């Protein structure tokens, strides 16, 4: 029998990719999304319940109605910069959302949760690459809220037996490898979409936030991971919980770091166009370098990033921004 999974934030960038992969791999995904930032058409034929995770009875009703046996919880606000100026929204949506979700799950008797956490929970790391046991001391409200959610999951496990896998994403990027879905945030704040837009002439120059960091070229270094690799990791985490595996917290990254200038150069190579840039001050809340040690995810789930080299990420993302790109052949 196919097991049903409620996917909160299922109409979003990563959630919709996970929904499609779940359906392809024999699960029955049901998206639960308030469509505040998600897109109904990203889901294709996958069912959608329009609802808000802060609404525990609505979560419980959706779990009951579809007889779901697990939850993948993507729904959240996820912009570092915005979280600094609108922290109340982040505590409300992310922490309030987790309270509602867990209350709904308890009411429906669902005890398996895969959760979207983030490398922003580490703050400015004391060593690189970052390992899961390293100190978590966030430097922005987004990271604070996600860390609070991780703690909430641990407390619920002790008291109520809820098992979870917290997946600490590094920088999600790319697009559906077969060209069905790309990154559509409004407003867009992420580096790779903005660099692709700048190269296509659809926008002004790319603003580089900070050129005086203590890194080889002075710009921030991040670990970019392809959205399809991220989606695959969620399926492995779900299977782990279905096989009664223990709760886990795992980094999801490629293990490689790329600077803002590396991204600009790679976009220029893949698109054949120049990326006009202007250098600006640092963006508040940005740590200089975040790179993952991906060993634990490999050991515990057998997960390895396979599409997360910059050339593949950009080849898949480029067509969504008016460039020629190349998708994979039909799956
Ligand atoms: N960045 C930049 N210009 C932009 C957007 C982002 O220089 O227009 C930098 C940002 O300061 C960070 C990196 O690119 O160092 C990745 O930022 P993004 O917003 O894509 O992801 P985040 O790391 O905040 O999740």
UniProtKB/TrEMBL annotation:
Pfam families: Epimerase
Catalytic activity: UDP-alpha-D-glucose = UDP-alpha-D-galactose
Cofactor(s) it depends on: NAD(+)
InterPro entries: Epimerase_deHydtase, NAD(P)-bd_dom_sf, UDP_G4E
GO molecular function: UDP-glucose 4-epimerase activity
Domain NAD-dependent epimerase/dehydratase intervals: 5-253
GO BP term, example: galactose catabolic process via UDP-galactose, Leloir pathway
Record has DNA repair as a keyword: no
Enzyme Commission no: 5.1.3.2
Record keywords: Carbohydrate metabolism, Isomerase, NAD
Pathway(s): Carbohydrate metabolism; galactose metabolism
Family note: Belongs to the NAD(P)-dependent epimerase/dehydratase family.
Subunit structure: Homodimer.
PANTHER family tied to this protein: UDP-ARABINOSE 4-EPIMERASE 1 (PTHR43725:SF53), UDP-GLUCOSE 4-EPIMERASE (PTHR43725)
Protein's name according to its UniProt entry: UDP-glucose 4-epimerase
Species, as recorded: Rubellimicrobium rubrum
């Amino acid at each position: 029998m196919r097991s049903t999974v409620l996917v909160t934030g299922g109409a979003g960038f990563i959630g919709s990719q996970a929904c499609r992969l779940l359906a392809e791999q024999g699960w029955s995904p049901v998206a639960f999304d308030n469509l505040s930032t998600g897109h109904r058409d990203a889901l294709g034929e996958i069912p959608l319940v329009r609802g808000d995770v802060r609404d525990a009875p609505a979560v419980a009703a959706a779990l009951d109605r579809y007889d779901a046996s697990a939850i993948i919880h993507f729904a959240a606000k996820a912009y570092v910069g915005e979280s600094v100026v609108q922290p109340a929204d982040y505590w409300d949506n992310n922490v309030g959302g987790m309270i509602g979700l867990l209350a709904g799950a308890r009411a429906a008797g669902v005890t398996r949760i895969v959760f979207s956490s983030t490398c922003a929970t580490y703050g400015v790391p004391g060593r690189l690459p970052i390992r899961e046991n390293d100190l978590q001391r966030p430097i922005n409200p987004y990271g604070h809220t996600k860390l609070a959610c991780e703690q909430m999951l641990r407390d619920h496990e002790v008291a109520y037996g809820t098992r979870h896998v917290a997946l600490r994403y590094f920088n999600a990027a790319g697009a559906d490898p077969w060209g069905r879905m790309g990154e559509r945030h409004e407003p867009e704040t992420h580096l790779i979409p903005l660099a692709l837009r700048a190269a296509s002439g659809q926008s002004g120059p790319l603003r580089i936030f900070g050129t005086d960091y203590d890194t080889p070229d002075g710009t921030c270094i991040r670990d970019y991971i392809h959205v399809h690799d991220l989606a695959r990791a969620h399926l492995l985490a779900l299977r782990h919980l279905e096989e009664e595996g223990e709760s886990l917290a795992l980094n999801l990254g490629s293990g490689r770091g790329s600077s803002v200038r590396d991204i600009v150069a790679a976009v220029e190579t893949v698109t054949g166009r120049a990326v006009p840039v202007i250098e600006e001050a640092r963006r508040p809340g940005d740590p200089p370098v975040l790179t993952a040690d991906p060993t634990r995810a490999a050991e515990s789930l057998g997960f390895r990033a396979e599409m997360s080299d910059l050339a593949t990420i950009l080849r898949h993302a480029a067509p969504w921004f008016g460039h020629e790109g190349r998708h994979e052949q039909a799956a």
